């Protein structure tokens, strides 16, 4: 088993019931797709619809960062390792 | 017979407080068609009526309120107004844009602009009730805060729906960054319009309008409105904007490493987690709130129920205020931030300049440039929120050291030292973006005609290139790649486009906060709305040229007061030091590349490369007076 730190920002934080940070235990060798499925299982379908479009791709409003590096849906097969940090967020707004 | 106006009310109100007169005049057509309205017409009126070197608080200095031709109509987000004046903080062009409901009320009373000059011999307020205009005694209101004033005036005019734009003690005491507040929390704050109002002994401008706004082609206008509303609702970031407003930025700024911390010494804050918009929404937000005719409703009411700040309530804070009283001051107590925001609204202070000034004092104290004796026997350590709040009050009332800080950090540094630690451009304090990682913003903030400022250029496209790649290509011809914000190339062109169009947006009367304008709403939306509202078929190119004219005019105002190329550089700290911490560590502004970008900007603008003065040919093309030509 490995432990991965998951952080939620913006509307993903709301969809996760205002959880801002969570530690997820998953099977060794598990990939990003498995983590996403675990998130959906834990936080419900609303979380899925915020994160994935009908084709299972990331909409432009959903960013996933693994250890600070932004990834897209083609990276869902990326294996995670102990201590990885995965961030779910929207892009930036600016304003006053 | 006077012209029948659509969109515009067609009337300006000229108030001379010394002579106690209020005279209505027809809006000159050449102003409406040459500068649109609101910010643009205000700028031209200010330029023409301000002599070079006039003191900002001189009785003759004009204070100009304006609404645009779309203000108060059914166009979405049309609740804005602009106040324009010579800034007491910077000594150059000053204007401030504000939401809420005051602007539409002025239009519905039948006015596009109010031009106020003179100084009343005792405190007064202006009461505009459609055609009827009264200069009323306000001696009993002097000393009251903005919330008390709002309530008292509504009782006096016996109309709870009247809209009141007023100053608090900070404006009365001529704090150079005092705000004008309406709807208790909407602030025309930057550059210090509240001090100009205070210098005229003018406590408030209260308005009630019952005339409505007439548009030229109602059916077509409604179609244009529906199209604009759909664009806003369909925007990919609509949910974020309507859920959090600007407060979502706090967490994201920390995550990406551009959250100004401890007076811009760091770019991440170890206490940022406690300041996030998500925390504010979960613990303190009681309901959402929108300005006039806004489908986004990005603002929020907050309340603190427990602890030392129990009883704190009201609208806001925005991201800027959260950073000003949070990370910039090393303070992770969100309830203190909410309280600081509330008292700034009550006292009538610009939260950005207030927070920056206090952060500068904290750094000066840390570096022993300021001693406890100079701070009236007190201390001001990073994160000391009680001391921070005490200092806000002292600034508003000019008590002790607050009297010096009330003139701004740059002015105070002339007495105390520490000028190099003031993060400012042209005398105005920087907003809460560490621009070292966003090269276009670095340029945009530095060249702004009103000084260090994120709202004049507001280069949204730079920070969300993948979302708006198609728009950027279609509007500007620029192809963007991931990480576009880090590059210098094409930024001069992008900024000129943003600046021109934001001048248009600020002159039409539409909100650009939350990126309403130039994100979901594009030039074609503005063209359609304006044509149907006014009956004037201006092309997008016509509008962009008007924007360019306004931008150049605001620059000319600065040039007349001595602004030159050397004033278009970022603050020393940001130009000379790379980011010291966090994910953006090591990113800095390369001076040579910045200079190349600035040169390209001047070239596109048609400004002299050596001086930064708009060239005669450009001014002629735009129908503007030659630089140095006195009015």
Looking at CATH, the homologous superfamily of the largest domain in chain B is Aldehyde ferredoxin oxidoreductase, N-terminal domain
SS content category of chain B: alpha+beta
Q: How many discrete domains of chain B? A: 3
Approximately what portion of the residues of chain A adopt beta-strand conformation? 25-35%
What is the CATH architecture descriptor of the largest domain in chain B?
4-Layer Sandwich
Overall radius of gyration of chain B = 23 Å
CATH class division of the largest domain in chain B: Alpha Beta
At the first level of CATH, what is the class of chain A? Alpha Beta
CATH topology of the largest domain in chain B, anyone? Aldehyde Ferredoxin Oxidoreductase,  A, domain 1
Question: In words, what does this structure look like?
Answer:
The complex is a heterodimer of chains A (96) and B (631). In chain A, 26% of the residues lie in helices and 26% in strands. Chain A is an alpha+beta fold and 96 residues long. Chain A has a five-stranded mixed beta sheet with strand order 2-1-5-3-4. In chain A, α2 crosses α3. The mean pLDDT of chain A is 90. Chain B contains 25 helices and 17 strands. In chain B, α1 crosses α2, α20 packs across α22 and α20 (491-508) crosses α24 (591-605). Chain B has three domains: 11-208, Aldehyde Ferredoxin Oxidoreductase,  A, domain 1 (4-Layer Sandwich); 243-416, Aldehyde Ferredoxin Oxidoreductase Protein, subunit A, domain 2 (Orthogonal Bundle), CATH 1.10.569.10; 434-519 and 539-622, Aldehyde Ferredoxin Oxidoreductase Protein, subunit A, domain 3 (Orthogonal Bundle), CATH 1.10.599. Chain B has 631 residues and is an alpha+beta fold. Chain B is globular. Helices cover 39% and strands 13% of the residues of chain B. The A-B interface holds A 7-11, 13-14, 18, 20, 59-61, 65, 68, 70, 87, 89-96 and B 236-237, 239-241, 243-246, 248-249, 251-253, 255-256, 273, 276-279, 281-282, 298, 318-320, 431, 433, 454-455, 458, 460, 463-464, 466-467, 482, 513-515, 583.
């Amino acid at each position: 088993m490995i432990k991965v730190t998951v952080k939620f920002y913006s509307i993903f934080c709301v969809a996760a019931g205002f959880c801002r940070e969570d530690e997820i235990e998953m099977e060794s060798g598990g990939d990003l797709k498995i983590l996403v499925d675990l998130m959906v299982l834990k936080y419900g379908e609303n979380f899925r619809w915020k994160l994935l479009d009908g084709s299972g791709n990331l909409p432009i409003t959903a960013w996933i960062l693994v250890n600070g590096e932004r990834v897209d849906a083609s990276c869902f097969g990326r294996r995670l390792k102990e201590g990885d940090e995965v961030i779910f967020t929207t892009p930036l707004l600016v304003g006053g | 017979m006077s012209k029948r106006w659509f969109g515009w009310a067609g009337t300006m109100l000229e108030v001379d407080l010394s002579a106690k007169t209020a005279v209505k005049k027809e809006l000159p057509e050449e102003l409406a068609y040459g500068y649109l309205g609101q910010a643009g017409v205000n700028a031209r009126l200010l330029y023409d009526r301000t002599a070079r070197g006039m003191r900002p608080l001189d009785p003759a200095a004009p204070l100009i309120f304006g609404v645009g031709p779309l203000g108060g109509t059914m166009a979405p987000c049309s609740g804005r107004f602009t106040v324009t004046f010579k800034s007491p903080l910077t000594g150059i062009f000053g204007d401030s844009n504000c939401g809420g409901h005051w602007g539409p009320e002025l239009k519905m009373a039948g006015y596009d602009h109010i031009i106020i000059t003179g100084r009343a011999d005792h405190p007064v307020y202006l009461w505009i009730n459609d055609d009827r205009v009264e200069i009323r005694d306000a001696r009993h209101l002097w000393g009251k805060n903005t919330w008390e004033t709002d309530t008292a005036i509504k009782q006096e005019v016996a109309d709870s729906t009247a809209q009141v734009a007023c100053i608090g003690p900070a404006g009365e005491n001529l704090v150079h960054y005092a705000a004008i507040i309406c709807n208790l929390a909407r602030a025309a704050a930057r550059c210090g319009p509240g001090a100009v109002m205070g210098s005229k002994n003018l406590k408030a401008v209260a308005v009630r309008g019952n005339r409505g706004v007439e548009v030229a082609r109602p059916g077509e206008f409604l179609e244009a409105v529906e199209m604009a509303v759909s664009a806003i609702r369909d925007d990919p970031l609509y949910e974020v904007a309507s859920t959090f407003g600007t407060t979502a930025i706090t967490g994201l700024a920390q995550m990406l490493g551009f959250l100004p911390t401890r007076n811009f010494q760091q770019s991440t804050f170890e206490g940022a987690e406690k300041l996030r918009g998500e925390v504010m929404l979960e613990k303190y937000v009681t309901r959402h709130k929108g300005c006039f005719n806004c489908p986004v409703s990005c603002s929020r009411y907050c309340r603190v129920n427990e602890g030392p700040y129990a009883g704190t309530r009201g609208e806001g804070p925005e991201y800027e205020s959260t950073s000003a009283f949070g990370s910039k001051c090393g303070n992770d107590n969100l309830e203190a931030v909410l309280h600081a925001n509330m008292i700034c609204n009550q006292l009538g202070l610009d939260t950005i300049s207030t927070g920056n000034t206090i952060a500068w004092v904290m750094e000066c104290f840390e570096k022993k440039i300021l001693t406890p004796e100079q701070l009236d026997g007190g201390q001001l350590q990073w994160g000391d929120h009680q001391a921070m709040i005490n200092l806000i009050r002292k600034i508003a009332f000019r008590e002790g050291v607050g009297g010096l800080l009330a003139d701004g950090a740059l002015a105070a540094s002339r007495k105390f030292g520490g000028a190099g630690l003031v993060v400012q451009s042209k005398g105005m304090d920087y907003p809460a973006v560490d621009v070292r990682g966003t090269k276009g913003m670095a340029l945009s903030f530095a060249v702004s005609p009103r000084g260090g400022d994120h709202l004049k250029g507001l280069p949204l496209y730079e920070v969300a290139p993948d979302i708006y790649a198609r728009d950027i290509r279609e509007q500007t011809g620029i192809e963007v790649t991931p990480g576009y914000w880090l590059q210098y190339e094409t930024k001069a062109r992008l900024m000129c486009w943003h600046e021109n169009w934001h001048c248009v947006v600020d002159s039409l009367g539409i909100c650009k906060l939350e990126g309403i304008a130039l994100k979901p709403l594009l030039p074609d939306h503005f063209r359609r709305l304006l044509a149907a509202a006014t009956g004037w078929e201006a092309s997008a190119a016509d509008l962009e040229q008007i924007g360019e004219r306004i931008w150049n005019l605001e620059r000319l105002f600065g040039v007349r007061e001595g602004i030159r190329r050397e004033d278009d550089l970022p603050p020393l700290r940001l130009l000379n030091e790379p980011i010291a911490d966090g994910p953006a560590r090591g990113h800095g502004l390369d001076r040579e590349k910045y200079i190349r970008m600035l040169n390209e900007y001047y070239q596109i603008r048609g400004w002299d490369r050596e001086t930064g003065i708009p060239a005669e040919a450009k001014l002629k093309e735009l129908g503007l007076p030659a630089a140095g030509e006195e009015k």
